[in-house]
Amino acid sequence: MSQTYYVHESLPEHTLFHPENLSDFESLPVVVWGNGACSADPVAGHGPFLEELASWGILVIALGTPGNGGSTSNEQMTQAIDWASVNAGQGEWSNIDATQLAAAGMSCGGTQAYAQNQDSRVTAFGIFNSGTLDPSQTDATLGAINVPIFFFLGGPTDIAYENGMRDYEAVNAGVPSWVGNFDVGHGGTYLDPDGGVFGTAGQSYFRWVLRGETEASAYFVDGGAEADGWQTASKDLGSI
C-alpha cells in the first residue's frame, strides 16, 4: 500500500502521514508522534518507520515539518490531538476515527507522549527507546495511565533501557502492557526499509489496539516478536 506525507495548511507545524488513498480504508485511527531529541523534522529521523505505520491504514500526525531544524514541544502533541478530535469525521477527513488515538514517540518524543497521560482522548501509548527521566516521577506518570501501553527498547546499550524497564514495572495492575528489547541500542531501526523490526512491531501494535485487527496480535502473543529477535515480557494482554 503506498502512502504519502505532507504539511496541511490547517496544521502547519505538523506532518501528516497516511495511505495515498484515504478511501482505501473505511476507517483510520490516529497516532500522534513525537520525534527523537524532540526534533522538528519527523522525516529525517523516522520517515520510513512513520510511512510504514501509515501504510496499514493509520493517520500519523508527527510533530514538526520536513527539513525543520528546530525543536518541538509537549503542547504541539496536544495540538495534534485537538486537531484530530475536531476534524475527524468531517470533509476530507470523513473516515478518520479519533476515538482510537495513540500518543507515541521515540526518546524525547516518548516524554512528549507521557505528557498526554491525563488526556482521556488517548486510548493507547507507545513508548519507543524512552522512559521517564526522573525516577521520582515514574509512579505518578504511569499511575495516570489506564490504557494499553507498550515499550519498544534497544536492549542494555540503549540509554533509555533502565528508564523504560522501570516504567514497565510501574504500569498499573490490570493495564495491558508489553516490553520488547531488540539489541540495537538507542537508535532503533527507524531508518531501515519500512522501519525495520521497530516498524514491524509498531504497526502490529497499532493495528491491534487501534484498528482491532486480531491477526496483528500474533506478533505479541504467538511468538512473532521473539522470532524477530525481541526479548519480551508482558502483562494482561488478554484485556485488549
Brief write-up:
With 240 residues, this protein is an alpha/beta fold. It contains eight helices and nine strands.
Topology:
Blueprint: E1 3-6, E2 14-19, E3 28-34, H1 42-55, E4 59-63, H2 74-87, E5 96-106, H3 108-114, E6 124-128, H4 135-143, E7 149-153, H5 161-169, E8 177-181, H6 196-209, H7 218-221, H8 224-227, E9 231-235
Parallel strand pairs: 3-4, 3-5, 5-6, 6-7, 7-8
Antiparallel strand pairs: 1-2, 2-4, 8-9
Write a structural description.
This protein has 240 residues and is of the alpha/beta class. It has a single domain (3-235), classed as Rossmann fold, CATH 3.40.50. It contains eight helices and nine strands. The chain has a nine-stranded mixed beta sheet, with helices on both faces. Helix 4 (135-143) links the parallel strand 6 (124-128) and strand 7 (149-153). Helix 1 (42-55) packs across helix 6 (196-209). It is globular, with a radius of gyration of 16 Å. It starts with a strand and ends in a 5-residue tail after the last strand. The relative contact order is 0.14. The mean pLDDT is 97. InterPro entries: AB_hydrolase_fold. This is Dienelactone hydrolase domain-containing protein. It comes from Aspergillus sydowii CBS 593.65.
